[in-house]
Design brief:
The protein is built from 6 helices and 54 strands. It is mainly beta and 747 residues long. The longest helix is centred in the last third of the chain and has 13 residues. Bound molecules: 2-acetamido-2-deoxy-beta-D-glucopyranose (NAG) (8 copies).
Amino acid sequence: MGLERVTVGRNAFLFLLMGLLSSGYAQKEFVALFMENFSPDSGAYLILYLTTYDKAAVVNVSVSDPHFYQTVSIERNSTIPVTLDSQYMIYRNQISSKVVKVTSDADLSVFAFNTLNYTVDAGLVLPVEDLGTEYYIFTPGPGSYNQFAVANGASTTASVNITFTGSVDFDGQSYHPGDTFSVFLQPQQAIHFQTFSELTGTKVVSSTPVAVFSGNKCHYGPTTKCDFIFEQLEPVQNWGTSFVLFPLANNSKDIIDIVAALPDTIVNVNQTEYSLQPGSHVNFFLEKSAIVTASQPVMVSYLFQDRTYPGEYDPFLVIVPPIQLSRKYYKFVTEAFYDNYITIVSKATSDTGFYLDNKPLDQYMFTTNEINGFRSWEVSLGKVDGQHEVYHRYSAFIIYVYGLEVRVSYGYSMGQETKYPDEPVGPPVLNCLPHGGEFYLPLSLVTKAKLSVSDVHLEEPTCQGTLEGNFVVINVPFNRCGSKVLNEDEKIVHVNTVYGTVPGTEVHRIEIPLRCEMATNETFGFSFLPQVTDVVSQGQYLISLKLYQSEAFTDPITTFPYEVDLHGWLYVEFEVQSDDEGFQIFVENCKASPSLENTQENYNVIQQGCPVDSTLQMYQVPSPRMQRFSLHVFKFYNFGQVYLSCNIIVCRNETTPNRCTQGCLTGRHKREVYNSKVHLGSARLSQGPVVFQSGGEPLQNSQTPHTVPSSVLVAVIAVIAMLSGMALVIQKHYYKRKGRTDLENSL
Ligand SMILES: *[C@@H]1O[C@H](CO)[C@@H](O)[C@H](O)[C@H]1NC(C)=O
Ligand SMILES: *[C@@H]1O[C@H](CO)[C@@H](O)[C@H](O)[C@H]1NC(C)=O
Ligand SMILES: *[C@@H]1O[C@H](CO)[C@@H](O)[C@H](O)[C@H]1NC(C)=O
Ligand SMILES: *[C@@H]1O[C@H](CO)[C@@H](O)[C@H](O)[C@H]1NC(C)=O
Ligand SMILES: *[C@@H]1O[C@H](CO)[C@@H](O)[C@H](O)[C@H]1NC(C)=O
Ligand SMILES: *[C@@H]1O[C@H](CO)[C@@H](O)[C@H](O)[C@H]1NC(C)=O
Ligand SMILES: *[C@@H]1O[C@H](CO)[C@@H](O)[C@H](O)[C@H]1NC(C)=O
Ligand SMILES: *[C@@H]1O[C@H](CO)[C@@H](O)[C@H](O)[C@H]1NC(C)=O
């Protein structure tokens, strides 16, 4: 029997994240190489970014010859760069002892940036647990300086056999396609090959796991003359059979290459079939998107082509992670020199649920793409330095990270590593939303109870959950599925229970009471200042306020500030945005003021539900979730604008009689109702400014000296734009962000 308490919202996200970060695979040792860039004396350098997770780490970075040794202490959740100069660069068909070893006492990720002015690429360095003994080389294109290197970071000698698919000169000897080269690599030794001939399909077999890096020292693209590209290759054991490809940065001519390892591998690209033999490959231009499946594991690479429009960008190389190996949480590193992007590829149906640096994805600029139920989001991060994290609660995804600048670019991918700080399992999470709750039950709790997803349900047994990733997701409507409403001190509570029931019995192996608590009559500080945007994106509850041009209430006003003739009328509508018909709304107080800050000079329009302004007129409404009224336009002496600020009470019809049904109250009654605590809560909304036209004069000609603070106007316009101009919908912290589950798991 366990008891867990969970809070909703951002805190739940952090809680979950900490939970996931506290367990982890060993990812403490790495083998890196400084691949030959433009030329050894050109001033190129290799930056290794060392990124920690939940634990601080002491990390040693060493090269045996020329000697390099640096120990760095890194705090938890931080990134520190270690830079090696060009004497550590390996080059031209040599064996050297320049293997860069990284050892850490806690989990780490390592990102390598091989940098020289106008020619850069980056790669993710694989942990030694992901190294293997069998590789196939990919080198992009003939006619340039193709290169690869094999590094032995272990403490024993490795016997390595390399069977070439191209011609290579090494140590005065020429090797031709089909020739095998055998070599013993001592600990910390690496062998490097460089040639004009294409080496894709070259096979590397080793007696013990080695690291293999590949690319081109001086790649010739459609317009670029000489660009450095590299990537660490995945051993055959980590290859996959299903891939989803989306173009990066709107390119339409990037080259996809697919290499096979086993005989008669059938590769299917968008329904076109290719049969591949070990080391043979097929390539194509990626115009839009493509689905690649293979009968046996393949390696898929993506060569980003240079272009001149809209930016002059260089090529970079990434390995495409198979979709099966995707995860739900990544840390990655960018450099501020570039316009940085991340492309997320996932089966998630919308951007909701993704968090990038703790912010929902919709707070970033992104473009999205879709093929066969898979989606990509290319998110612009801007010119930012350092570490980032991207997360989704239950949908796994892969990422590409890349940076573009004039004549330079870098790119790497993540998702293919098998050893990595653990996937999030986290505690159960309950989100309270306007229409109901959303409960995420870790699948592991269900399988541990020897139950299946269909055995999980609410009080009403037909209300079942669905499997999404590692979670069973159960929607908890407040008006169905056995949900009840309780009145507690100062809050209204919706309750239900999740059960895991042994089929055909009354035995519950899982029983988790759920509560969504709503504070009653909360006071909101709300105004049209820039923080409005925050409220809109974080809120859990929607109350809309619309202004109309006539009492037909069919002609909403969509432009603000709204100018009305002083002799006209203002038509106002409030509505709870929910399809739950059990909600009711009541405008309790409404007052007008010449500005949001000015609290002295105000005028009551509605007080305790009673009309105070003598022109105020209420209208019949189609639903109790709505309230409409009109009033004759007025203005304050010497002020051009009027702001309306209203106190809204939302109730449930289960609690009738309640504040919403009681209507206008005075003195004694008011106290009674206050004590009965039957309303659900209230929101204060401000709409405005409403700008008055005196005799049709334009605003700037009005005689009033008051000027509207520009931030107010900008915020109003921004909000309108965000909500597609339909209406001003204001999302409130209506539920007090206090969902709670009591996890009682009894057998
Ligand atoms: C890690 O640090 C970043 C800032 O670099 C912060 O945004 C994030 O919340 C931290 N993550 C955890 C799990 O502490
Ligand atoms: C780093 O080097 C120091 C000194 O050589 C050694 O004591 C320590 O164990 C090393 N740490 C790791 C994680 O290899
Ligand atoms: C590389 O560029 C930086 C900044 O633009 C400049 O300071 C530096 O001198 C350049 N280095 C070389 C080797 O050209
Ligand atoms: C490399 O080839 C040699 C000679 O054919 C063979 O003896 C050795 O076992 C091979 N090594 C590996 C790792 O396959
Ligand atoms: C891709 O195109 C979209 C829409 O035109 C644009 O907003 C985005 O910035 C482009 N992405 C890149 C990396 O150029
Ligand atoms: C694959 O199919 C998609 C959707 O039908 C299409 O947009 C894309 O261009 C195709 N890709 C290739 C490489 O044929
Ligand atoms: C709700 O709160 C407002 C502001 O604190 C107060 O004026 C009003 O009387 C309260 N209404 C009820 C019904 O408690
Ligand atoms: C509340 O409203 C819903 C939807 O109109 C209705 O089905 C239900 O019977 C009402 N409940 C009460 C107690 O009036």
